[in-house]
Write a structure and sequence with these properties.
328 residues; Rossmann fold; alpha/beta; 7-stranded parallel sheet
Length: 328
């Protein structure tokens, strides 16, 4: 008798997606979101043929050694720094992610953070709620213009380009960007964006947004040296991964008065937060929710499920990260 492959889903997910997967697989899930000890997580993964993971589910060499039957991990995220991709490839475990479906939603949120930071919206709300507003002043919580200013985008993939379009088309901003590879001239023209060296981007931008993948090479790419290169009073927005920024250096740059503010949706070591960040004004801090709309998260979940179904049905994948695993 043929048995269904086993799929492990360590964190809660949409009930309709789990129901869909149950028609194809034996599903081990955690809809109650119970805290799972590491050894129990490894034990359940070791019983499984595939996993539907999130960014908090670590797939490393130790887990791979313990999971001889594991064949695929479908990440419900674009980023995959929770994956040891080289180790997965060596072990013959396919990795997939969920690009494209969250591009516009994440770009919306990145721009919202930029505006909230530049216009001091969070600080203003706290000021009002604390009943500090007693009278009007010409400089009350004065921020900085977004329209007509210069936006520097570090990382010009799908999301970076979507942010650039909002900036140039909607807010008449000058857009400069830094990327490992310069975009084709036609794409730059359509986005009204200009490639520059990183040092020039930092020096020229009123607002800098990070939209690039995290890797060992990009760890703390924005540190004390880079922050000092930024224009005095500029703002830094991160919707990529927390490890890109040295958070202590970031706090120092704000407290010294060099930075005008910053907005972070991602943090190094999240969900733990550097306590220094929580003491600051002129900042916007959100809990990794840039893609968090019901519509988009459901699309992400279904794409991860599609990858699992396609793999076990046809040994193919829609969005593979290491497609060489699929080669005969």
């Amino acid at each position: 008798m043929n048995t269904k492959p086993k799929i492990y889903i360590p964190r809660p997910n949409f009930p309709q997606v789990i129901e869909r997967l149950q028609s194809h697989f034996e599903v081990i899930h955690n809809q109650a979101d119970e805290v799972v000890l590491h050894e129990h997580y490894v034990a359940k993964a070791a019983q499984s043929d595939g996993m539907l993971t999130t960014g908090s589910d670590l797939i490393n060499e130790a887990l791979l050694k313990a999971c001889g039957s594991l064949k695929i991990c479908a990440n419900m995220a674009v980023g995959f720094n929770n994956f040891d991709l080289e180790g997965m490839t060596r072990a013959g475990v396919l990795a997939t992610n969920t690009p494209d479906v969250l591009t516009q939603t994440t770009a919306d949120f990145g721009f919202a953070l930029l505006m909230a930071c530049a216009r001091r919206m969070v600080e203003s709300e706290h000021f009002l709620r604390d009943q500090q507003w007693k009278q009007w002043r010409f400089d009350l919580l004065a921020g900085h213009d977004v329209h007509g200013s210069t936006l520097g985008i570090i990382g010009m993939g799908r999301i970076g380009q979507a942010v650039a379009k909002r900036a140039s088309k909607g807010f008449d901003m000058k857009v400069i960007y830094h990327n490992r590879t310069q975009l084709p001239a036609a794409t730059e023209s359509a986005l009204e964006a200009t490639w520059v060296e990183l040092a020039d981007l930092l020096a020229q931008s009123d607002h800098v947004m990070l939209v690039l993948p995290y890797s060992a090479q990009s760890h703390h790419m924005i540190g004390a040296r880079e922050l000092a290169m930024m224009k005095p009073g500029a703002h830094l927005i991160n919707i990529a991964r927390g490890g890109l920024i040295d958070e202590d250096a970031l706090v120092d740059a704000l407290q010294s008065g060099h930075l005008g503010g910053f907005a972070l949706d991602v943090f190094e070591g999240e969900p733990k937060i550097n306590p220094r960040l929580l003491t600051l004004k002129r900042v916007v801090l959100t809990p990794h929710i840039a893609s968090s709309t019901i519509q988009t998260r459901l699309k992400m979940s279904n794409l991860a499920a599609d990858n699992l179904i396609e793999f076990f049905a046809h040994r193919k994948a829609i969005t593979p990260l290491n497609p060489q695993v699929l080669e005969p």
